[in-house]
Amino acid sequence: YEVSLIILILNYFILIESMSMKDFFVWQNSYYMAMMFLPFFSIWFVSCIAELNRTPFDFAEAESELVSGFNTEYSSGLFSMIFMAEYGFIFFICILNSYMFMGSSFIYIKSMILLYLVLWFRGTYPRYRYDKFMMTAWKVFLPIGLFMLIDSM
């Protein structure tokens, strides 16, 4: 899924013809990426959730089988720092998604909506098998991303 993330980012840079966040904002004043490229946004969002190692995609650490993995070795301060860093990364990804796909106005409200979606996925979706997700990443996400990359050139 990291390969499809990189290809989608390259596609985004090619569409905007820049790597500057200022140019992202200027470009999004006339276009709304999330609605304009809904398959692109949905693949990006699912891949970001997989990159966050949240419950539907927590392949390295399945909390029901392992007792929260390496987290049991830490207590109090370090334990809370690990989880604050994890949730900080989730919030950063939501802000990045808001900047890239949802325009530059009301960024924190849009980020909170995406944060709610990430946490909602954690509570509602069942855990996927690793081989099924990798098959989806290589046979669905990657070809769609490559097609969009070739189409944008």
TrEMBL record:
Pfam families: NADHdh. Its EC number is 7.1.1.2. It is a multi-pass membrane protein. The chain crosses the membrane at residues 31-50, 78-99, 105-121, 133-150. GO terms for biological process: aerobic respiration. The keyword Transmembrane applies. One of its GO terms (molecular function) is NADH dehydrogenase (ubiquinone) activity. It is found in: Mitochondrion inner membrane; Mitochondrion membrane. Signal peptide: none annotated. Keywords: Membrane, Mitochondrion, NAD, Transmembrane, Transmembrane helix, Transport, Ubiquinone. InterPro entries: NADH_UbQ_OxRdtase_su1/FPO (IPR001694), NADH_UbQ_OxRdtase_su1_CS (IPR018086). The keyword Transport applies. It catalyses: a ubiquinone + NADH + 5 H(+)(in) = a ubiquinol + NAD(+) + 4 H(+)(out). It is an enzyme of class 7 (translocase). GO terms for cellular component: mitochondrial inner membrane. Core subunit of the mitochondrial membrane respiratory chain NADH dehydrogenase (Complex I) that is believed to belong to the minimal assembly required for catalysis. Complex I functions in the transfer of electrons from NADH to the respiratory chain. The immediate electron acceptor for the enzyme is believed to be ubiquinone. PANTHER family: NADH DEHYDROGENASE SUBUNIT 1 (PTHR11432), NADH-UBIQUINONE OXIDOREDUCTASE CHAIN 1 (PTHR11432:SF3). Belongs to the complex I subunit 1 family. This is NADH-ubiquinone oxidoreductase chain 1.
